Amino acid sequence: MMKKMSIPTSKTSLVLFLCQIISALEVPLDLSQPPTITQQSPKDYIVDPRENIVIQCEAKGKPPPSFSWTRNGTHFDIDKDAQVTMKPNSGTLVINIMNGGKAEAYEGVYQCTARNERGAAISNNIVIRPSRSPLWTKEKLEPNHVREGDSLVLHCRPPVGLPPPIIFWMDNAFQRLPQSERVSQGLNGDLYFSNVQPEDTREDYICYARFNHTQTIQQKQPISVKVFSMDSLNDTIAANLSDTDIYGAKPVTERQPVLLTPTGSTSTKVELRGNVLLLECIAAGLPTPVIRWIKEGGELPANRTFFENFKKTLKIIDVSEADSGNYKCTARNTLGSVHHVISVTVKAAPYWITAPRNLVLSPGEDGTLICRANGNPKPSISWLANGVPIAIAPEDPSRKVDGDTIIFSHVQERSSAVYQCNASNEYGYLLANAFVNVLAEPPRILTPANKLYQVIADSPALLDCAYFGSPKPEIEWFKGVKGSILRGNEYVFHDNGTLEIPVAQKNSAGTYTCVARNELGKIQNEVHLEIKDPTMIIKQPEYKVIQRYGQASFECIIKHDSTLLPTVTWLKDNDELPDDERFLVGKDNLTIMNVTDKDDGTYTCIVNTTLDSVSASAVLTVVARPNPPFDLELTGQLERSVELSWIPGDENNSPITNFVIEYEDALHEPGVWHYQTEVPGTQTTVQLKLSPYVNYSFRVIAVNKIGRSQPSEPSEQYLTKSASPDENPANVQGIGSEPDNLVITWEPLKGFQSNGPGLQYKVSWRQKDVDDEWTSVIVANVSKYIVSGTPTFVPYEVKVQALNDLGYAPEPSEVIGHSGEDLPMVAPGNVQVHVINSTLAKVHWDPVPLKTVRGHLQGYKVYYWKVQSLSRRSRRHVEKKILTFRGNKTFGMLPGLEPYSSYKLNVRVVNGKGEGPASPDKVFKTPEGVPSSPSFLKITNPTLDSLTLEWGSPTHPNGVLTSYTLKFQPINNTHELGPLVEIRIPANESSLILKNLNYSTRYKFYFNAQTSVGSGSQITEEAVTIMDEAGILHPAVGAGKVQPLYPRIRNVTTAAAETYANISWEYEGPDHANFYVEYGVAGSKEDWKKEIVNGSRSFFVLKGLTPGTAYKVRVGAEGLSGFRSAEDVFETGPAMASRQVDIATQGWFIGLMCAVALLILILLIVCFIRRNKGGKYPVKEKEDAHADPEIQPMKEDDGTFGEYSDAEDHKPLKKGSRTPSDRTVKKEDSDDSLVDYGEGVNDWAGGQLFCIEDCRRAMDSKRCRCFRRCIQKLMCGMMHERGILSLNQKPIFQPFHM
């Protein structure tokens, strides 16, 4: 069975994979080998004094090693200390502190030794120290009294702990104190104030020290700070100082920067390689200084440099010797700057260049152990053998020490040992164990057989062949069963046996064989490689800009290898999606409902398979209306202006385009906000113009592309001083409402336009063009004044001036008005009418004198109406029409007149008050015109060679009709028109019979009327003459027969029962018409119900009717211009109580059965006599073309039935056939069921009524057979009516023949 292994595709994963392969090249544990330390405690081991101390030491080897310990350089006998135990099959020590032991008693340096017959390995020196979290020493803390603007340092001085504590500042409520560029905590834990402010006054500055190892927090006593501001000092000494002394000096003295830490201009710092370098500069000054860092003579290392604590701390991670140098910090404010240079030296504890590695040799081989390390200062190298300095260790002739190298030559099995290399300087040491194991072993492959590797196409493939052997085997790779050895640039062969295919393609798939051989043997192993298609995101999520509370959707459509199972994960800002039901993760999308501001961020779709991973990201930007501005401030207050400033709110990812400023006048219109002005979105101050005597409040609204923000909080109120009005009322007018007055109106000034209290108006007027003085009156704050006793419609000069308690507004401008109008006095004269044509006339009149208008001339109105039509001499209701002609116009056109009619008109002048008197009525007549089309044209009574035409006179003759003109022409089967025939008909005719027409021919007719003026519009119609009576078409017509044009349904009759009604009708028209019956409740507005009639029968039974109800009914035909019959009304019978009876016991049923039996017997006797008399009776050879094929004719000579031959007697009949031997009647062979006799259960009555009537009119030869069928229908119908038979059940008697 193949074991599957997926090879990752990323470079990082590839390196880790190679490291795993390299570290796996070890001596198998079933072979003899010296000890190897596999696990040990850290060199500097700080333990919790309240818990047991566990010192780890684990090792492997063959045979399994034994363990021993030293403490402070001497043997540590654990058997003599009851508190110390060693774990079974392990070197790990457990010191029991929780049962009485004290951690301080076990402080020291410990070292573990693991030993077997092939050597001894040792651990690092492990320094054990219990952690400490001492209390603060008690001290008396004096309150700090500081002047505003001065610097301040609050010292923490935490107790020395092991390890050092973490420092932070909080208040009594356990809330962290806010820090900023002005206030921050230093690396030593002190709290630095670059300058103090009044808000820094408090009594609970508390320094806390958290000792993580023991999970304890120690608290310093609270420190009190009191800041004295210049305002409070001024209040204290105000009585002894003048206003100039108090307010002329600056409240706080600004100062240039001074460094609080470090002090002086230079300092030094030593840091070890690989550690984090922290440099700090904190400065005092007002304004608060800004810190900037540089490295003299170089650049700060990219990607490893960070600024913390508001740029007061420079942090460089993973420092190296190259980071040594001078680092300069500069503190700067508006008054100056100060700097400090820190000289940094990077030292290094020893670090490996080449650490010694285990050496496996076969007897007689050579080898080397190399131990190379570096550091600052350079470390010294020393060697040990099995934990003993090599100088005093037992000698080995195959071993030679050369500095950092041990050389082995012609080793033997006794040369097996563990060697230790120690590299040390003043900053630390390194200790490494490496064994020399002398073995003679044939090759073995450690990789499982038939291992399956799966990789993505175009990615590296690493095929493992972990091996062991002594001497070291040689490795070769083959592909396929009979493949040749692999070589070339397309493969990479690693020392650990791994075969690397840098770019695996589809053709790289297959079976690979690894062969390991040395002088002691050979072994091989097969592995298998599969190449998979890469996973791809074929539609990536796209950048979205969504309004707040909208919906965002990201797509992530993938394509992957069909054998791999992908998993799709969505992240937000490289973290899991919020646990929120608004986030809906679909198969290939992510939808966020009702997005909010916190949904803003980067969304990543990650697709993972066992072999590869792909991702795609998109940014979601949530936009919204801006937040309202805040901190509105009024400055520079003047009588007519003020400066407003504000701070913008959050723009919510959509830039603010402008700010709208509104004001409220709390004095005149409290609660009402008015538009003042607006400024661009980059501006946060504006100079506003003000009006006097207004109590202003302002608010600001921010606007972006999404919309307007909520208004800001109102600013403080500002009341401007009073002044006389700057303007007068607008829209002053003088218009009289009555003939003897003048109404002066104006738009009052708004409250803020009054400029002061006591707003009034001075209204002045005088008659124009008359040497009169102005008449004036002062009125309260109103909007009109009425002047009485004026002449009618006289011009006046009018003006209105505003005034208040402080004076008048500027002199107002004058406007012209008029006193009230009166109705005009005279009518227009000399009215003349000129008739242009039969529908248009022109009217003229003389203008009235302007003095008689007594108002503003608006125009003239012409009233006109039709008196009568000259052709019909009939009067009708007079409907007057009005045409208005604006201005001083003296003529007009009257359109839309009716020809050959008599009209009257008059003219009136109009002013603003109304209409004047009418002029005398003027009579005029319109001439004749052409008539309208005839009202109808109907063609009836078609015969072989004639058609009857009927028509109606035109609705609008428009004159005296002189004649009618009829034109007609035939139409052949291809719709071609024949010659046109024209006939002139007298005007007093209303019908015409056209004779000598061709039979069965379609004609098209054109018909119009004439007056003396000309012909009117025509009406057209088509009709067809009928074919001959024999029904044989003329050869010229053939199959193209045209049906009569006017089919009709007439004589609709009804016979109603309780719940059904029989409907019958007569039809004239084309054959094969499809009928339908429509019915509904009489008097109801509901839609007609429609029932389709099967076949072309002329009767139908309506079922399911309501007893005692009146119904309306009509019959129609489909496909024939939708014609219908006239309506008929019928009423169903009253409901009867139903009762269940046994039909077999009913007298009517017994009597009926007897009559039927007697009738059948008589018919059989007659048939028998006739049959014996003539043998086989001749059958008439030719039946009537439309006769029923079942009904044979009777002999006309003697009235007897025509007889059939014996062969005919045995023929199956289409209807009424004999019952088969199984006593069943097939539906397709019999129509004696109720379904065939009627449309439903109640159809039998209608069917038998019409059946008997048809038989009565039938030919003698058919009548007997017809009556027989009617009797059968009658029997079946009654049985179904009384529930004896179901709808589709066959009759209980056999059909019979005559």
From TrEMBL:
SUPFAM superfamilies to which the protein is assigned, alphabetical: Fibronectin type III (SSF49265), Immunoglobulin (SSF48726)
GO cellular component: axon; plasma membrane
GO biological process entries: cell adhesion
Subcellular location: Cell membrane
Keyword Mitochondrion in annotation: no
Residues in the signal sequence: 1-24
UniProt KW keywords: Cell adhesion, Cell membrane, Disulfide bond, Glycoprotein, Immunoglobulin domain, Membrane, Repeat, Signal, Transmembrane, Transmembrane helix
InterPro entries (UniProt xref): FN3_dom, FN3_sf, Ig-like_dom, Ig-like_dom_sf, Ig-like_fold, Ig_I-set, Ig_sub, Ig_sub2
Keyword hit for Iron-sulfur: no
Location of the region described as Disordered in the Swiss-Prot/TrEMBL record: 709-729, 1179-1232
All residue ranges annotated as the Ig-like domain in the record: 35-123, 130-224, 257-345, 350-437, 443-530, 534-621
Domain Fibronectin type-III: 628-723, 728-822, 827-929, 933-1029, 1043-1135
Biased composition (Polar residues): 709-725
Compositionally biased region (Basic and acidic residues): 1179-1198, 1220-1229
Topology in the lipid bilayer: Single-pass type I membrane protein
Transmembrane segments: 1148-1169
Pfam family, one: Bravo_FIGEY
PANTHER family, alphabetized: CTX-RELATED TYPE I TRANSMEMBRANE PROTEIN, NEURAL CELL ADHESION MOLECULE L1-LIKE PROTEIN
UniProt family annotation: Belongs to the immunoglobulin superfamily. L1/neurofascin/NgCAM family.
Protein name: Neuronal cell adhesion molecule
Organism: Ficedula albicollis (Collared flycatcher)
